[in-house]
Fold:
Amino acid sequence: MTLADWLLKTGTSQYEFATRIGTSQATVNRYVKGTRVPRLSNLLKIRDATYGAVTANDFGDQIEEVE
Structure:
């Protein structure tokens, strides 16, 4: 599941999610748009904050494009 889908499904705002994982809303927005790939530390926080629904694998296409 993408982060965008999870946020929509749970009704969580980007700001609320950013606060939950200790980053800015702008950074979460970049993750959602695919213009930025989370660092490993944030990938782990995203996984934990979404109760495992969003994992590093869900950013796979973005990771390949950035490399």
Q: What stands out?
A: The chain has one domain: 3-56. The mean pLDDT is 90.
